[in-house]
Amino acid sequence: MSPGYLLSSLIIAVIGPLLVLRYMRNILRQVIDLLCPAPGSSEFWWRAMVVLALTGSVLLTLAFGSHNETLGFVDFLRQALLLTTLAVFVSVAFIVSRIWSQIAKWLHQKSFEKQPPQPWKESEQT
Fold it and tell me: Are 57 and 88 in contact (CB under 8 A)?
């Protein structure tokens, strides 16, 4: 792979996830604060998500990027965008699935806490 193509693919692999994470930052931080209210925890988890998304994208690009020197720029760009989109999708799907599992547990616990006691039927009390 030529140095120009390699540099271009790495730039795409970094910018793609950063754009998605920037879009999701505010709402994800609110959800993280809700699930893990300890001081500094949202910053830790946010940074972990950024590292996961960036390394996943760069790893896919380096591992499966085109090594064909005769590939045209449009085909190269298509493949780089495809790998970056795949990495972002997998990263976001993983993050969302983990957060959703915690939210489901939290909602399940809250439903039991707020559930009023069941009144006994007249026939059962006597």
Answer: yes
